[in-house]
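Example record

Each entry pairs one chain with its bound ligand, iron/sulfur cluster.
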Amino acid sequence: VPLHLPWIDAINRLKRERGAKIMAHSYQSPEIFHGVADVTGDSLALAQAAADCDADLIVLCGVHFMAESAKILAPGKTVLIPDLEAGCSLASSITADDVRALRVQHPGVPVVSYVNTSAAVKAESDACCTSANAVQVVDAVATEFGMGKVIFLPDRYLGAWVATQTDVELVLWHGQCEVHEKFTAMEARHTRERFDAKIVAHPECPPEVLAEADFVGSTSAMGQWLAKEKPQRVAMITECSMADNLRDRFPQVEFIKPCNLCPHMKRITLQNIHACLRDLKHEVHVPEDVAVRARRALERMLAVGR
Ligand code: 13P
Ligand code: SF4
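Structure tokens for the complex follow.
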């Protein structure tokens, strides 16, 4: 941490001078999450914060689709991302053409897309969701469209988990999160037995991992579960920084870390946040015709809430 302090001070100074708000996803490194962020949370919380933001300049410390969502929901603001290459294996698993082809194959069936998609894919969707509200959004869209079936994309594991929580029939895509797909059931079982730990898993994990979990939930739901259950020891089957960032809130809990880092999230560093604020780069743009349609899908999600 001492090594980080000069960078943290410099960023916080520049941030004040620029009147900027820094928003950081829970998968950002602790020095960013605790040191410089004004708003922290899961992708739903960041989307809500962008929609309500009173600053003219937003620095999104997360991956590209999150910065695009912020720009779509706050079109009058300047949205910067410290590294334009911060992508996501889910977002790159599907294109707008793929969604149009799915609609041809399943006429009249509404499309719910995870926010982990490009703006162009969101623009082809009826509603977006995050892992925090996927079940609620699927149910709401099915009711609104009077259909017992919904196309849910692009994460096949999140989709398979949502399918266990709803009566709506889901048509799935084959996207996977390159971080969560790596966890194995054996690793989860071993962690529980060896450390006598509770297992909490993100629904982007494969079904056999979720079957080993004491609790399956989104980034925000994991925090709520910890606050309620107060386990002595817990293993967070999700991105590595989650446990680091939760540690402060739950000093009585011992975190066992079966750790997978998201290489895209980790492209964001104190150094490139500083350069981002200093040089006002890299600005995220979404073409207006795409933004208008994507905004409708995102706003339908925000109307459902958590
Ligand atoms: P949320 O739980 O914030 O939706 O995020 C999961 C994820 O993998 C984000 O990239
Ligand atoms: Fe995408 Fe997975 Fe990284 Fe989240 S953790 S940004 S879903 S690759």
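The mean pLDDT is 96.
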